[in-house]
Amino acid sequence: MPWFAANISVLGISWGSWVLGFGLSLTQAVIVSVVGVALSFLVCGLIAIAGKRGSAPTLVLSRAAFGFNGNRISAAISWILTVGWETFLAIMAVQATATVMGALGFTNHVVAQIIALILVVVLAAGSGILGFEAIMKVQTWITWATAALTIVYLVLVAPTIDFAVLSSRPSAPLTAVLGAGCMLLVGFGFGWINAAADYSRYLPRAASTRGVVGWTTVGAALPTVILVFFGILLVGSADESLSKAIGEDPIGALTTLLPTWFLIPFALVAILGLIGGIVMDIYSSGLSLLATGVPVSRPVATAIDGTIMTVGTIVVVFFADSFLTPFTAFLTTLGAVIAAWGGVMLADIALRRKDYDEPSLFTPSGRYGSVNWGAVVSLIVGSLVGWGLVVNASASWLSWQATSSAPWAGAMVTGRAPTSASSWRWSSASSATGRPARAACARRRSCPRAPMPRARKRARSERRPALLPGSPRRRGRGRRPGPHLSLAGRPDALVVLGSGLADALDEAWGAPAATVPLGDIPGVVAPVADGHGGELRAYETRRGVVLVATGRTHLYEGLGSRPVTALARAAVAAGISRAVLTNANGCLKPWNLGDVMAITDHVNFSGTSPFDGPLFLDVSAVWDAQMTQALRGVCQREGTYAILRGPEYQTMAETRILAGLGVDCVGMSTVMEAITLHALGVRVAGMSVVSDLSFANAPTDPTAVVEAASAARQTVVAGIEAALGA
Question: Model's pTM, two decimal places?
Answer without folding.
Answer: 0.55
